[in-house]
Amino acid sequence: MFIHWFPGHMTKAIRAMRKDMAIVNSVIYVIDSRAPKACINPTFDEIIGNKPRLYVLNKADLVPKEELDKWLAYFKEQPNSGCIWANSTKNTNSAVFINALKTLNEEKIVRFKNRGVKKTIRAMVIGVPNCGKSTLINSLIAKKKTITGNRPGVTRSMQWVSIDQYIDLVDTPGTLYPDFSDQEKATYLAMIGSINDDILDITELAAETIKYLCDNNYKEAFKLRYNLQEIRENSLDNLTAIAKQKGFLLKGGQYDLERASKAVVNDFRKQAFGKIILEKI
Length: 281
Ligand SMILES: Nc1nc2c(ncn2[C@@H]2O[C@H](COP(=O)(O)OP(=O)(O)OP(=O)(O)O)[C@@H](O)[C@H]2O)c(=O)[nH]1
Ligand SMILES: [Mg+2]
Hints:
The chain is of the alpha/beta class. It has two domains: 8-171, P-loop containing nucleotide triphosphate hydrolases (Rossmann fold); 201-269, Conserved Hypothetical Protein Ylqf, Chain: A, domain 2 (Orthogonal Bundle), CATH 1.10.1580.10. It is built from eleven helices and six strands. It is elongated and about 75 Å long. Bound molecules: guanosine-5'-triphosphate and magnesium ion (MG).
């Protein structure tokens, strides 16, 4: 399966992000903690230039704490950057966020203070689709100002939101790489729900998910979930066994492998096999 998703709205979004980058002081770089490397989009680097970045390891509740800590340390070491973690579905600790953003912009704040002005910090919130950008913003203001949803491509235009008197954030549509040469990253993004399922071969994605689980110590969790006696070499055999266990049948009586595939992909996204980080450091 070759994965590539870069619809027209992303080209438009990148153009708008480039334009508005001129008027922001810094960038909130939201990352899905389950696949931190895949969430680093080379196009973003080019758009951001040397503006300070606050990396937010979002969906931190979905990964093992010790792995999260390693990534936190890694991103904190990046030049001109800060890093915090967040679970945006619970109220994010907005004080931690605001402090981190202020620390990143300290020099500017002091400069303005010396001139007797309190300047608003403007930051652009960017990230791959579905990583939780809009949810993070809502959690910071404890209001539903931006539209969110559990599928990629929910936010379609830039939206400014005031976090407090001195901080304005702009939400952006999630964007992917125009050139998907690294198919491992593309597969991980598909697994975490960053790529539109409609363009994916769900059976192949399920096969990749099963392979990942079996190669990475989640074999028992996988067997347990579907009550399987053994894992077969061929992924179609595994999907057939799952369909059999779950009673997924087509009209003609054959096993419904597509339904079994969807079950595996959705179970992975719902943490049915435990807390999993796809990319370790
Ligand atoms: N478990 C968990 N789920 C989260 C977290 N943050 C967001 N979500 C969920 O992730 C899904 C996507 O959230 P959005 O805020 O719409 O993501 P987005 O990055 O704005 O997506 P696009 O606008 O499509 O680019 C929603 O179902 C959220 O509830 C988090 O920290 N933990
Ligand atoms: Mg959004």
